[in-house]
Amino acid sequence: MTFYIEPPTGNISLEKLETFANNRLKFLIELFGVGENSLRRGFGETFGIERLTTSDCLIEGTQKDLISHFILRICLSSDPDASVFLRHAENHLFRIRLQSFTEREMFRFLRKTEAGLQRLVDTKDSTAGRAAYDIVLRVKGDYHWKNVVKFCMMETMNPKFFIPFESALKLVAKREVTLSCGMASIPYKYLREILVQCYDDFLREEIKELSQRNSTEDVRIKCLSYKLKHILSNWMAPGPGGGVELPPLRAVDVEAESQFFPPCMKNLVDRLYSVHRLRHHARIQLTLFLKEIGMPIYEALQFWRSEYSKMSTSSEDGCHHHWQQNSRRYTYNIRHLYGLEGSKVNYKGHCCLSLQVIFLTDIQISTH
């Protein structure tokens, strides 16, 4: 597996091209809908062996893998929503593959990626390629790739490599790295995290560049692009009689899936996991948001019970109630927001404007 740096060459029938693209897109949709915690049980248990044997995109490095990836890039790059989905889903697949690597597989991957990026930089004026190649060289430093892999597998805190902090934003946000003069000092135990972000940045720029070119002038590609976007749009907004159903959002998957939440909701989730409490309005906002993105009532109760059964670690959130002592009240409030108690109104999540008004109102109240 590499960063999908070099597109495949040769001839292929339109029928096979469409089959490969359909198989990969449908698998990515399934993969995107399954929480990371579920995937830790393994692909086989999550999807079933029969499903895996027909998923050509799982055969890493094969022509089918390369063809299906690049045809999706071409067909979906012109649509903003579709291209965002493709980037996130491919990044998710990349992360899972990376985590499953043995020491030998990791070594081959790093060596092949370095060689591929070097060829790209030498033969093409690629901004994405230069940025990714720079990160890969900084990761390697003066070491041989075998040494780098050993450092990673041993999860050692020393030695470290240095990269621009923009290439390690998630680790910076978690206060896991040291910053100095715009550079982040990264222990090799976090190598996989850096590679995931590097791949995400590379793929984003490649898709952006592709979207700026007339890549779908061919009528056959335009037709295939329309079909693929139709499959994706049905999944994004399933309607009566069609579409791919989203699996319910489980309480145990919220932390992993929160990376895809809007920043305002991501902030609430992070705050909740940090201090195990939220203010009243924040709790309502997050409950309604989770409801609208597919969390059923039984999972919502489990989600809030899990956090509110822990001791609060903050004196600033105005709530020190415990689930065990207030379970009936909390259960009623959550069921009420789901339209199952009281007037049984089907409440909707707050829009951005409403959240801004609530936030500004809270600020005004706190300053008086």
From TrEMBL:
It comes from Pinctada imbricata. This is DNA primase large subunit C-terminal domain-containing protein. Its cofactor is [4Fe-4S] cluster. The keyword Iron-sulfur applies. The keyword Transcription regulation does not apply. Residues 257-353 form the DNA primase large subunit C-terminal domain. Keywords: 4Fe-4S, DNA replication, Iron, Iron-sulfur, Metal-binding, Primosome. InterPro entries: DNA_primase_C, DNA_primase_lsu_euk/arc. GO terms for biological process: DNA replication initiation; DNA replication, synthesis of primer. GO terms for molecular function: 4 iron, 4 sulfur cluster binding; metal ion binding. GO terms for cellular component: alpha DNA polymerase:primase complex. Pfam families: DNA_primase_lrg, DNA_primase_lrg_N.
